[in-house]
Known about the structure:
The protein is α/β, with parallel strands linked by helices and 330 residues long. It has two domains: 2-220 and 290-312, 3-Layer(aba) Sandwich (Stationary-phase Survival Protein Sure Homolog, Chain: A); 226-279, no CATH class. Helices cover 24% and strands 22% of the residues. The protein is built from eight helices and 15 strands. The protein has helices spanning 20-29, 99-108, 132-137, 139-149, 167-186, 232-240, 284-291, 298-303, and strands spanning 2-6, 33-39, 57-61, 91-95, 119-126, 153-159, 194-199, 210-213, 226-229, 242-243, 246-247, 260-262, 268-270, 276-279, 307-312. The strands form four sheets. Strands 3-4-2-1-5-6-7-15-8 form a nine-stranded mixed sheet, sandwiched between helices. The chain has a two-stranded antiparallel sheet with strand order 9-14. It has a two-stranded antiparallel sheet with strand order 10-11. Strand 10 and strand 11 form a beta hairpin. Helix 1 crosses helix 5 (167-186). The longest helix has 20 residues, at 167-186.
Amino acid sequence: MHILVVNDDGPPNTRLSPYIKPLVAQLQKANHLVSVAIPAASRSWIGKAHLIEASLTANYIHPDSFRPDGTWDESYTDSTSTSEAEAENSWVVIKNGTPASCAQLGLYNLFTERPPIDLVISGPNHGRNASTIYNLSSGTVGGALEAVFCGKRGIAISFGSKDPQTDDVIAAAARLAVKVVEHLFSVWDERVELYNINIPMREDVESRPVLYTRTLPYYWSRGCLYAETEKEEEKKEKVNGTTNGVVTNGVHHCNGNGNAEVNGNGHVHPKQQQRHFKWSADLSDMKKRLQNSEEGTDAHTVLNGSTSVTALRANFWHVPGLEGPIYLDQ
């Protein structure tokens, strides 16, 4: 079987992407032809996005050249040719790539001299992808979704822990992943467009149950993904007692444009004040919900030490019965 592997964690990296090389090695050990196309940087939480204003650059990288931090030795890079013969053993690392664009290029552009691709595997993700929010936000699931829209079967795989793992645990998860993939491909239910697999990271995982599951529904209970920050220059201005020309040490002045106002606390803010935010996910509420999830869901299954396999359709399907004309009040 010819398998295209994409991911959202980027090149092999001990901190961000520790699982892709062991999975590829196990697929090859099982005599599968494996082609690899991955983003040059982490693209987690990006779903099935394409960066339409960004040019993509495909770099052919020998897999032995990757360093622990995800960079690579440039001496292994074939920068003058994209011929399949010269890049036979290379992985393709795509600058500005996303999981979806890696799937697109991998299916249509990068490996045209190899046999047709039978299956796209997206992952293995560094951590779980269980529940609706994770599934709809996940770049790992997004890569498998893109495969479906290209007429291919897709399987998203997540290794369910971000904690450091021993080589034995990672190898066990990779061996099990290959067995589950081969089984699903051989008995593929035609109603299914993609499968989402979550594998717990434990040394005895191969002896634990593998279960079909349903997706745990989850919705944000509060805004918890971004934290407000200050730019360095604003911090310096506060230390010096000024902000945009407005003295803040107890004396309230307008700047030269009269562009300031006092809020209810007596603080002066420019009318065109900027506010700055950075990604700072607080997932404590979600983790509590996952821990208390119902038996039979993807989250409950993987958190209780079994492998979860969720069969999915690649669509936002309409609500049955809400069809036909809408009569608005006149």
